[in-house]
Amino acid sequence: MPRLQLGDWINSGVNWLRDNLSWLFDFISSVVQGMYDGVNTVLSGPEPLLLAGILALLAWWLRGLLPAVLAFLGFALIDSIELWGEAMNTLALVLVAGVITIVFAVPLGIWASRNRAVSAVIRPVLDFMQTMPAFVYLIPGIFFFGLGVVPGVVATVIFSMPPGVRMTELGIRQVDAELVEAADAFGTHPRRTLLRVQLPLALPTIMAGVNQVIMLALSMVVIAGMVGAEGLGSTVFQAISSVDVAMGFEGGIAVVILAMYLDRMTSALNQRVSPLARRALAKEKAKALSGLKVLHWRPATSVAMVGVVVLALVAGGMSMFGGDDEGPKVSANVGKGQSVNIGYINWDEGVASTFLWKELLEQRGFKPKVQSYDVGALYTGMAAGNIDFETDSWLPTTHASYWSKYKSKLENLGSWYGPTSLEVAVPSYVKGVKTLEDLEKKSSTFKKKIVGIEPGAGEMKLMQDKVMPSYGLNKNFSLVKGSTAAMLSQLDRSYSKKEPIAVTLWSPHWAYDKYKLTKLKDPKGAFGKGDHIDSLARKGFSKENPQVAKWIKNFKLDEKQLTSLESAIQDAGKGKEQQGVRAWLKQNPGMANKLAPVPGGADQKGKDAGAAPMIGYFPWDEDIATTYLWKNVLERRGYKPEIKQYDVGSMFTGMSTGQVDVEFDGWLPVAQKQYWDRYKKNLVDVGSWYDKTSLEIAVPSYVKDVKSLADLKGKAGTFDGKIVGIEPGTGEMKLLKGKVLKEYGLDKEYKVSDGSSPAMLAELERSYAKKEPVAVVLWTPHWAYSKYKLTKLADPKQAFGASNQLHTLANKSFPKKFPEFNGWLKKWHMTEKELASLEQAVQDAGKGNEEKGVQKWIDANPGIVDKMAPVTS
């Protein structure tokens, strides 16, 4: 029978959906992520024991005093084993998934109960949803929604929906038909029959379905952890992948406590909402022994709600006014709180290098988030943009299949360690086995198995596809798939008993220091040449994070440094990787500054730190850009600059009276000559920082036969008789009106409209979009010449005068008042490329985000701060 390409059809369908319905998946992802973030914020905000008190109070209301005490003790235990944050992440995930499931399951169950055809159709669908392994849902989930909470929630919803639908349908169908007929006989509308008769009587069964939905949702936490969701799932997944009994037990007991609480509370909720259950509860209370009544007494709903509100207000107040916890020590605030997502494979060198960079980035003011993934999920997540970078790609051999698949969506930031090697290793007490060829002859000695690592690892694929066939090992050996930790655990057990064992290993690895092992030679070169360990990033990361990308590109560790780092982390223990990194950094002073250099090691303070110069600026692009640049630089040097926007006339007046200390946009000797001549007695020219400027009128290049100012004559009708100007007080506007138009006989034909630079640029953009003629006042340098195709009108009579320079002008007292700042400005100079890129960065950041644009430009130009404002000891 020919093979049905079912998998290929499904794959094609998934790809089609991803390519054509991405908007829908983005919408779903935004809604689900927003719901999760909201619930998680509420649960994670209060102090743990206060929230435990609120949850215990709810347990008291629903079940009684003893369950409330046990609930509080259970949550206190979670807090004591330092898994409170993860538990609340998990609870948020379960609540969100549960709500979404119930919202869909109950109406669907009602529909099925009232329509036999619908019931017959959805039954096999529900069977499929519940019996399909939940792991399978993760594959399209990652493609559609990326990594994180959303694919975990989606898989949870699909897996937990069947009992909600079935129990709702069952509950309604079990309602006594005579009661329904009686309601119909009295002329009750079917909708009222459903709401007033069927649903109240079916409520116990429906609530049992809700309980099962919650329990199934909670059982999926490990699945969510595998795709990068926060919570206990991540803890359990790490414990499984590292065979860590302690971590696994602690994560598991936290899941059990949550499961017991949710199970008991959702079961008891039925007694509060169902009329039948409330009557049964009343009978139960009446039969209770008098001495135990206190254990069965439950507060009234109003009393319980008052208690919850009071505790919630106290918790909220503590959250608002608390926050004394110290964060990571920031030695140089380069990142300014920017988030960076780092993924890693749970291999020793991956863990070591990842937590090293987590610590370094925190010291540099970033907020890195690290998450463990399987190899395939890691590459998929980077390609989708969910992960910023990772540091453990073995290329060109081990991870060749992943690199070839995703390289168009990734960046290679360079190798930081090499050469490496992949190998099969055996204990040195196993005699007569020195090569892979020797291994083939002694399969019985090793019980016909080679102990491997994660099935998705490149070495495992290489072993199965090439190495084992090359040496005939596939005939007599099976490759045991598991995890790195499981392989090492098996190696330790066999080594302690002196039993033969063959394991997949690689160099460097600390196992070669702990055990005496023989690396089996590979005479056929099946493993290929030695790899190097590379850092990979998502496409566009280097452009968006140039400083971090530069650090990682220059990142290098030798074998001694890497093995000592791995050893420090091993000594610190699971869950304390960062403490191990800090201990290693203390043993290697200067390493942090070497790996993530910041000029001066940090933001050095200037000699006049604390001084507060008043800086004025015009709303012109070069002035806005340079003013915010100097504001950033001065703040790094400990100054407290103030900036304020002025008109040109007001600026010069303010500088002459000392209200403004300095400005950076003096166009001399021509454009602002009149102001300089008037106020120069009270001003000082600190120096020019940019050369070869020009003033001009520009028109779009699609306007033909207008190449010079002389060509404007007689064409006023083409431009509606106007030239779009800027601020009326600027030197260029006065020069244009007072001299240029007259020189070319345009003063009677054209009117120059007063306005502002932004208004002129807006008019230019509107006209350009409609291909309408427009003449605007411009100057060089300006980013508009890069954005639009414009013609600078030639000025053969040189009415605009000679080229200007951009000068720093200041009040005459400025050099004495701010000697250090004055010295920096005298030596300051910018090239055309530097200024254009700075203006562009500010433009890209948008109005109100000038400081962010400047910061991004500084990050892209490391060392610029020291160049502009050097601090001498």
From TrEMBL:
It is found in: Cell membrane; Membrane. It is a multi-pass membrane protein. SUPFAM superfamilies: MetI-like, Periplasmic binding protein-like II. The keyword S-adenosyl-L-methionine does not apply. The chain crosses the membrane at residues 49-78, 90-114, 134-159, 201-227, 239-262, 303-323. The keyword Membrane applies. Residues 87-266 form the ABC transmembrane type-1 domain. Keywords: Cell membrane, Membrane, Transmembrane, Transmembrane helix, Transport. InterPro entries: ABC_Gly_betaine_transp_sub-bd (IPR007210), MetI-like (IPR000515), MetI-like_sf (IPR035906). Belongs to the binding-protein-dependent transport system permease family. In the N-terminal section; belongs to the binding-protein-dependent transport system permease family. This is ABC transporter permease/substrate binding protein. It comes from Streptomyces javensis. The lineage of its organism: Bacteria, Bacillati, Actinomycetota, Actinomycetes, Kitasatosporales.
